[in-house]
């Protein structure tokens, strides 16, 4: 009869609902057992580079810099011209160091370079000089292997049509420089 068929159908539907709930519960249990990524910390090797800034609202996101400076392949001179610094950074893919291979790198802004200086070049420093510059009281703890004495790093921040901002990792000084000079380049990426 129809009543018997309807009761049997309702019983099957109830059994299917229980099965769907069981699958969802199993998936939730499996997800809970999977290792969760640890929060990022400045100085960590992660996401293809060295963490130099962590988002204060989400410690799973931040910025990393490449492990090494970019330069012309096969050239003994260090550094790049500014236009090449932009294109080399945008086309950079890091080597596999166990932290992931990525191809979404770019040339940092002057503000991002300053964060790199403050958080990596002055890693675990206890002195707080004005603007985090070390002139009379140099800090000896460093991360990132940045070149210091006499070297400047290009930023993507432009100043007019022929100059851009650059950063010293010796003392934290930022200045504007002509783009027709070779400067150091350290690509960064967001994670």
Fraction of residues in H or I helices:
25-40%
Name the quaternary structure: single chain
Low-confidence stretches: none
- Taking the alpha carbons of the first and last residues, their distance comes to 63 Å
The H/E string reads HEEEHHEEEE
Structural class: alpha+beta
Number of strands: 7
Which strand order do you get reading across the main beta sheet?
A: 1-2-3-7
- Please tally the helical runs, counting DSSP H or I stretches of 4 or more residues: 3
| Coarse morphology | elongated
Q: State which percent range the strand residues make up.
A: 15-25%
| Mean pLDDT figure | 83
The main sheet comes to:
4 strands, antiparallel
Q: Specify Rg, calculated over alpha carbons.
A: 26 Å
Write the layout of secondary structure elements.
Layout: H1 2-33, E1 45-46, E2 49-54, E3 62-65, H2 82-90, H3 110-121, E4 152-159, E5 163-168, E6 174-178, E7 188-190
Antiparallel strand pairs: 1-2, 2-3, 3-7, 4-5, 5-6
């Amino acid at each position: 009869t129809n009543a018997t068929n309807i009761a049997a159908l309702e019983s099957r539907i109830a059994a299917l609902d229980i099965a769907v709930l069981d699958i969802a519960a199993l998936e939730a249990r499996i997800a809970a057992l999977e290792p969760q990524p640890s929060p990022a910390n400045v100085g960590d090797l992660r996401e293809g580079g060295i963490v130099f800034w962590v988002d204060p609202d989400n410690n799973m996101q931040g910025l990393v810099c490449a492990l090494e400076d970019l330069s012309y392949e096969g050239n003994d001179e260090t550094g790049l011209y500014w236009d090449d610094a932009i294109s080399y950074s945008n086309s950079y893919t890091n080597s596999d160091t166990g932290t992931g291979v990525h191809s979404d790198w770019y040339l940092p802004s002057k503000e991002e370079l300053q964060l790199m200086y403050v958080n990596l070049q002055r890693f675990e420093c206890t002195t707080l000089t004005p603007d985090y510059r070390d002139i009379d009281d140099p800090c000896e703890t460093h991360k990132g292997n940045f070149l210091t004495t006499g070297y400047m790093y290009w930023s993507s921040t432009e100043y007019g049509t022929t100059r851009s901002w650059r950063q010293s990792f010796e003392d934290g000084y930022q200045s504007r420089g002509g783009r027709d000079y070779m400067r150091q380049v350290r690509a960064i990426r967001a994670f």
